[in-house]
Each structure stands twice: as structure tokens, then as C-alpha cells.
# Entry
Amino acid sequence: MLSIANALLEAMRYSTATASGEAANIGKYSSYKTFLRKYNELAKMATPILSNSSLLDGFDLGSIKGSADTVWPAQKEFFELAYSNTALLKSLLEGEIGYAEDETRGLMDFIQGNLRRAVFEVPEKELDVKNGIEALIVGRGMGKGTDYDRETGRVKTSGKESVPDFVFPRLNLCLEVKLSKSADKLRAIVDEINADIRAYGTRYERQLYIVYDVGTIRDEVEFKRDLESAPGVSVLVVKH
# Structure
């Protein structure tokens, strides 16, 4: 059902993507009744498995006029109702199946397994690691501005502003990159992560810290233990 919801949203986006300009509005939203019907069918299928289906609307298609009897502003309104309700249904389905948790775990495993190969030489600065991560997630099919963003999602706490390296809005996840090249830097990283956890925890349900290690971490389990005791926090150590 989640796949169907995604397909329906994509079909709606595609149906309006090629039109442009004021004149193109005529007929641009004329398929609204078809999409309302598809939404109704999907909502009916999903209702029995949702913990809270009361948020979903249903549409009496018999009382809604066809495209030949409506002007385009009314068509646009019905079209947007179909789209917004399908997007809400998609979110409910994702919550029901633990989509965000599964996707976050999949992203972590993907980065853990591929980042070392994406960083060809010993990195000089964190930017080198960030660029490697972005290359990986783009290669995985994620789109900037939709699936992820870089250096956005500013968080302000106690007069201090923090900006995560990456955010994944659909997963309510922020990702921070750290580069450890010395024992002194490693100690500083622990302090930085603890401060970030407090700041980002006010906004993000999930936090992922990737520590790219150049021979400074001997015991990964011990290093991660206290940091990961905070709810929703995960730490990955990737060794060069």
C-alpha cells in the first residue's frame, strides 16, 4: 500500500509537470476526479491496518462535478485535496510499518559498507568525508532538496546555533561527520558530539554521527557506548 501511495503521488506530479504558464492551467488539473477515486480506494484498503485512520478524509464522488462542469480553479482545489490526502496517507503508512527506522538502518549499513571506498586518499579535512557521503547517497538515488539536504536545518539552543552536515526530513534524521586524526582530536570529537546530541535532540528524532577514523580509535564498542546511550543516537566508526 505504501508503494501504491508513492506511485499515486508520482502520477499526480507527472500529470502537472509538463504544463506551464497561465494558459496551461486549463486542463492541467482535469484528472482530479480520477485521483480522488484512486485515493478513496487506497484509503479504504489502508483503514483496517492503521492505528489512527480518523485523520483521513473520504470523498463523495457522486456529489463532485466532472471536469466539463467546473472551472480550472475548482479543479485545482480538488486536485490538491487528492494530493494532500494521499501524502497524509503515505505518512501514516510509513509510521505504521516503522519505515523511518528501517530506512535509517539501511542508510547506516550502506554508508558503513561503502564510505571507505568512496574516500580514495587519507582525508585532510571533514569536507573530504562529507563529499564522499554525498556522492554515495546521490548514487543511491536520493535527491537533494527532497530526500536530503546539506548544511540546513539550523538549531538554536541557549543562544548557540548549530547546523547539521546533512538532514533527511522524511526520516526526521540529522547526520554529522567527524574526522579523527589524532588522540587530541578524538577527545574533542567526544565533547562535540555530546554538545550536538543536546542541541539536535530538541528537533530531530534520530541522530547519526559518522566518525571517520585514521588510526585513533582502538575500541569502537567502548567509544560508542556512552554516546549511544542517548535516545535516537547512533554512531558509526569508519576506519581508513
Notes: The radius of gyration is 23 Å. The mean pLDDT is 90. Strands lie at 149-150, 155-157, 160-162, 166-168, 173-180, 206-213, 233-239.
